């Protein structure tokens, strides 16, 4: 009989984990069995406040026992990582319903990142997507607290899924996750160095079209616009001479006037992909005159939607922020119900607000309310500063880093990302060269010492896996495997 008791205990433990990890057995809109095992639900990271972060976990379709585990974060701050799930590299492609109010149809995505990895989609911080807190004071937060909360989530999540602790673990994200990823990675490394358990097998991180540094990001637009033929040689030369390379903080009215002219010339473009049309812009918001609180620090003065939108820091932020800036560090509920041009969130909104979908993915309906791709609940403070020191510290410790950039994104132009990566001063060990996908040039890359690589994706906009899914899967799987790209 003692042997029978020993065999029952692991079985009970298995069912305990299963109950907490909430298997997803079917998804409305999709016919047939799921391509791999899916789990979703909440991880409580603060019992006193009732602060809960929602995750959706997709096991690898290849070899979940050995394939890497990747945490995916969308930006905002305030945007749901279902952006990545629905529109970018999730296991399904979503087809809009043929009738108003209908449920989208899901088809298997041949370029899903779950083809080669286990992937966790996390709504962070609390208040974003399907995550929530019972204490609304938690919706006043910032970079530092978000990193602490996401680290707490990871520790608790791996307790629910201890079988994945041996797998290589990576953190990935885009846009404002250019802040989320290195700050969270830093917390993970601190935990490893101080013996925090469980011990994560952290190997590195990926950042796509991510904000990093006010000055580098703020100075990126003018050279991008000139290189893309959006402004004339004469205007570029005039801006150079007047502003002396400083476009982030105009030193005088002469410089500001030239920058205003640059903004006028690019004003009608889709800043998330200059090759794409704007999807719905029934009315341009040419000017918004609002007296902002002193804590609301806008980086620049134009009224372009830099950090707000369909695809950079989300898909539908109501506030229009400056293109020259690159980061809007604090948020406020000042401009509700304004339409941001070049956006279309209808498919994700229809699916994630469907009652059957909510039930299938174990998402709360009473406390969360309506799902929005980007929320206006947060008062968010960019309190972590420049990301350059974070990247330097992480790479010098031996962690692998891939900084990738769609080269037609005007929201966080590749010119800024390339410049800050180069500013680290690392020795180049793989000189600038094309990289290939499907026997075609897919972009260009440069490799540096300390496991750092900068890579562009030819013809892609802000959300690379959405615009170039085949190419994105190619560099993603090569990076995870430690292969040459």
Automatic annotation (TrEMBL):
InterPro entries the UniProt entry points to: AB_hydrolase_fold, Peptidase_S10, Ser_caboxypep_his_AS, Ser_caboxypep_ser_AS
EC number per UniProt: 3.4.16.-
GO BP field: proteolysis; secondary metabolic process
Pfam families xref list: Peptidase_S10
Cellular compartments annotated: Secreted
Annotated GO CC locations: extracellular region
Signal sequence range: 1-21
Annotated coiled-coil segments of the chain: none
Principal location: secreted
GO molecular function: acyltransferase activity, transferring groups other than amino-acyl groups; serine-type carboxypeptidase activity
Keyword list, A-Z: Carboxypeptidase, Disulfide bond, Glycoprotein, Hydrolase, Protease, Secreted, Signal, Zymogen
Record family assignment: Belongs to the peptidase S10 family.
Function: Probable carboxypeptidase.
Annotated protein name in UniProt: Carboxypeptidase
Species whose genome carries this gene: Cucumis melo
Gene name, Swiss-Prot/TrEMBL: LOC103492577
């Amino acid at each position: 009989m003692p042997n029978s008791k020993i065999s029952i205990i692991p079985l009970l433990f298995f069912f305990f984990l299963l109950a907490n990890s909430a298997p997803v057995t079917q998804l409305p809109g999709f016919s047939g069995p799921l391509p791999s095992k899916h789990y979703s639900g909440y991880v409580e990271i603060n019992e006193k406040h009732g602060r809960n972060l929602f995750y959706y976990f997709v096991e690898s379709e290849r070899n979940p026992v050995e394939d890497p585990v990747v945490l995916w974060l969308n930006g905002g701050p305030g945007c749901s990582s279902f952006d990545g799930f629905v529109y970018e590299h999730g296991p399904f492609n979503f087809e809009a319903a043929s009738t108003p109010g209908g449920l989208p149809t899901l088809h298997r995505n041949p370029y899903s990142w779950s083809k080669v990895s286990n992937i966790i989609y996390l709504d962070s911080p609390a208040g974003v997507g399907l995550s929530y807190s019972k204490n609304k004071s938690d919706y006043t937060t910032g970079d530092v607290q978000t990193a602490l909360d996401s680290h707490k989530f990871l520790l608790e999540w791996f307790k629910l899924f201890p079988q994945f602790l041996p797998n290589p673990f990576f953190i990935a994200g885009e846009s404002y996750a250019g802040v989320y990823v290195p700050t969270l990675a830093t917390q993970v490394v601190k935990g490893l160095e101080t013996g925090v358990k469980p011990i994560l097998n952290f190997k590195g991180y990926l950042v796509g079209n991510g904000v990093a540094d006010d000055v580098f990001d703020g100075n990126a637009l003018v050279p991008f616009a000139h290189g893309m033929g959006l402004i004339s040689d004469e205007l570029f030369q005039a801006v150079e001479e007047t502003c002396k390379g400083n476009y982030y903080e105009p030193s005088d009215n002469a410089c500001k006037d030239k920058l205003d002219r640059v903004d006028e010339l690019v004003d009608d473009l889709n800043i998330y992909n200059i090759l794409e049309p704007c999807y719905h812009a029934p009315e341009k918001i040419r000017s918004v005159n609002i007296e902002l609180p002193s804590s609301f620090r806008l980086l620049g003065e134009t009224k372009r939607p830099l950090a707000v939108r369909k695809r950079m820091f989300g898909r539908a932020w109501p506030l229009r922020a400056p293109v020259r800036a690159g980061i809007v560090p604090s948020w406020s509920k000042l401009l509700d119900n304004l339409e941001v041009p070049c956006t279309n969130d209808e498919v994700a909104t229809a699916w994630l607000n469907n009652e059957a979908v909510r039930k299938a993915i174990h998402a709360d309906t009473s406390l969360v309310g309506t799902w929005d791709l980007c929320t206006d609940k947060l008062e968010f403070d960019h309190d972590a500063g420049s990301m350059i020191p974070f990247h330097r510290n992480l790479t010098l410790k031996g962690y692998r880093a891939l900084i990738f950039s769609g080269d037609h994104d005007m929201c966080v132009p590749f010119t800024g990302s390339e410049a800050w990566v180069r500013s680290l001063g690392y020795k180049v060990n793989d000189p600038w060269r094309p990289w290939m996908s499907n026997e075609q040039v897919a972009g260009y890359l440069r490799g540096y010492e300390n496991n750092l690589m900068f890579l562009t994706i030819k013809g892609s906009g802000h959300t690379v896996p959405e615009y170039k899914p085949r190419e994105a899967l190619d560099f993603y799987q090569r990076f995870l495997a430690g292969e040459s790209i």
